[in-house]
Design brief:
Blueprint: H1 15-18, E1 20-28, E2 34-41, E3 46-50, H2 57-72, H3 80-88, H4 97-118, H5 122-126, E4 134-142, H6 145-157, E5 162-167, E6 194-197, H7 199-217, E7 222-226, H8 233-242, E8 250-252, H9 262-269, E9 274-276, H10 287-291, E10 297-298, H11 307-319, E11 324-325, H12 335-347, E12 354-355, H13 361-366, E13 372-374, E14 377-379, H14 392-395, E15 407-410, E16 415-416
Parallel strand pairs: 4-5, 4-12, 5-7, 6-15, 7-8, 8-9, 9-10, 10-11
Antiparallel strand pairs: 1-2, 2-3, 4-14, 13-14, 15-16
Helix pairs in contact: 2-4, 3-4, 6-7, 8-9
Keywords: Lyase
EC number: 4.2.1.8
Organism: Pseudoxanthomonas kaohsiungensis
Length: about 425
């Protein structure tokens, strides 16, 4: 008995329905800058993708507008894999944060469109739920240890099960991760703010911080810390060893990872869990780290890692080596990326944790979304697609405002890793 010939219906979108007829780049600054791609099909269904690259937003916006958008018109929005290959393999100059952020914007947009046409949330397209909610961690910080401990306590009171803790370093002004009254946003000036760094003082205060946090808050809460690439491998090994008694969930970005083999030294000296990768753009950036089990969590985010299509491959590769995901999720990523990330988190078998910082009320108004925080976990809704929209009229009221990330120097004036 032969199967009847396949027919395309408007329920799932015919090729004509899926034809891309418009693509535009929206730049808005409701508290901070975001770059959003909106693709519309002939059927009127549209999707959104985030292309924000903190401090270099207009570079990605220009790449999209000048080089990518002209190639989208007339193409089939349902050919997600082919589109990814076209934008990646078809570009002689591959990879890098600008290119991969632009590709990610297109990719997430197409997944959003597919979900809407199929009348399914994206996590269902990926294979359905692996969990009911994504464990998240918040950012607690203070000018000194006591203030940081108080901040951790407030997150626990809000129901957070995991908290990243940072504190000021004695004698160091503008230490990384320490917020002002309006919350932590490092890109605060049109030209890079120059900060000063002192490694010995940092290495002395961090173990003291976590010793106090365990005394004040016990062992039930998961604690995390971000070094932000500021240590050499041997310094990172020392810190990881010194923090072992306080059982960190992870030590993040302990040393720059351009030389992936540098993590071998840290592993030889400590069993503290290691996370890295928010600045990675492809699977090749972490190949050695993963296949040699030098890290425990991969932080590469959907928006800077080429979208759902590419990060899915990265996550599957990581799963072979018992490495779990831990997506970057600071406020330099719009709710569009958070929505896409949470659909991915809901599905991916080797999920670890999701970073989560509260967006401003203005940002939440520009990007209405269906994900909600309950008892320390973020939950996605069942809205078809990624469950995030954009109010374009409201977005237009917040024009782009030039902002760059800080830089760091040592006390003798030498440039250092910020």
């Amino acid at each position: 008995m032969s199967m009847p010939a396949a027919t395309e219906t408007t329920t799932h979108g015919s090729r004509n329905d899926r034809e891309i007829v418009d693509a535009k780049v929206i730049v808005t600054c409701p508290g901070r800058n975001f770059v959003t791609l909106k693709i519309t099909t002939r059927s009127g269904v549209y999707g959104l993708g985030d292309a924000t690259l903190n401090g270099r937003e207009l570079a990605v916006a220009s790449y999209l507008q000048e080089h990518v958008v002209p190639n989208l018109i007339g193409r089939d929005a349902g050919r997600i894999e082919d589109m990814w290959q076209f934008l990646h393999r078809g570009a002689y100059w591959r990879r890098g944060p600008v290119t991969m952020s632009a590709i990610a914007a297109v990719d997430v947009t197409l997944w959003d469109i597919l979900g809407k046409m199929a009348n399914l949330p994206v996590y269902q397209l990926l294979g359905g739920r692996s969990r009911e909610g994504a464990l998240v961690y918040g950012h607690a910080n203070g000018r000194d240890i006591a203030e940081a401990s108080d901040a951790v306590g407030r997150f626990i009171e809000q129901g957070f099960l995991a908290v990243r803790a940072q504190c000021g370093v004695p004698g160091v002004k503008k230490a990384y991760g320490i917020s002002n009254a309006k919350g932590y946003e490092p890109a605060e000036s049109e030209l890079p703010l120059e900060t000063v760094w002192n490694t010995p003082r940092y290495l002395e205060v961090v173990p003291q911080l976590f010793e106090q946090l365990r005394k004040d808050h016990g062992n039930q809460v998961e604690l995390l810390h971000d070094v932000h690439h500021r240590l050499t491998p041997i310094e990172a090994a020392r810190l990881a060893r010194d923090l072992e008694p306080y059982r960190l969930f992870w030590l993040e970005d302990s040393t720059p990872a351009e030389n992936q083999k540098s993590f071998e030294l840290i592993r030889r000296h400590s069993v503290t869990a290691l996370a890295v990768g928010e600045v990675f753009n492809s699977i090749w950036d972490c190949k050695h780290l993963i296949e040699n089990q030098l890290i425990d969590y991969i932080r590469t985010t959907i928006v800077h890692g080429g979208g759902i299509t590419h990060v899915r491959r990265l996550a599957d590769f990581a799963a072979l080596y018992q490495v779990r995901t831990g997506f970057h999720g600071a406020t330099d990523l719009s709710p569009v990326t958070m929505g896409a990330a949470l659909h991915f988190d809901t599905w991916v078998p080797n999920f670890g944790i999701q970073e989560y910082m509260f967006h401003t009320e203005e940002t939440d108004a520009v990007f209405p979304h269906d994900y909600v925080l309950r008892a320390g976990r973020l939950h996605v809704g069942d809205t078809p697609g990624i469950g995030v929209d954009i109010d374009e009229k409201l977005a237009a009221k917040y024009p782009y405002a030039p902002k760059q990330l800080p830089i760091a120097r040592l006390e003798d004036g030498s440039m250092w890793d910020w």
